[in-house]
Q: What sequence folds into this?
């Protein structure tokens, strides 16, 4: 997945490489993120008390996932990414495209 992004956003990418990146992103969201991660976290979000530590931790993780995925899809869906970024950050950073890319920390 990362290699395909690197190829597409290098200096001389082709339309075919862009299509590969878009399809890889969609495939990741549809086959991995949505059914595996989001569906399994619903129990915690719906069943636990609003102030439970497990639910608060899940909400924090989901916010990080949304923020990261917004940056990932920004080149493909710029208007949607800007709308999400504006809602999440409320003036902290004026654009998703000006946000500094931070590597994820493995836990």
A:
């Amino acid at each position: 997945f990362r290699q395909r992004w690197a190829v597409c956003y290098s200096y001389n990418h082709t339309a075919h490489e862009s299509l590969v990146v878009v399809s890889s992103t969609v495939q990741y969201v549809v086959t991995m993120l949505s059914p595996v991660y989001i569906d399994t976290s619903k129990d915690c979000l719906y069943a636990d008390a609003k102030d439970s530590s497990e639910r608060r931790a899940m909400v924090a993780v989901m916010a990080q996932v949304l923020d990261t995925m917004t940056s990932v899809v920004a080149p493909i869906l710029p208007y949607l990414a800007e709308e999400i970024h504006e809602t999440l950050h409320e003036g902290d950073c004026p654009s998703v495209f000006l946000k500094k890319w931070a590597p994820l920390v493995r836990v």
User: Anything to note?
Assistant: The mean pLDDT is 80. The CA atoms of residues 61 and 104 lie 12 Å apart. Residues 15-47 form the longest helix (33 residues). The two ends are 20 Å apart (CA to CA).
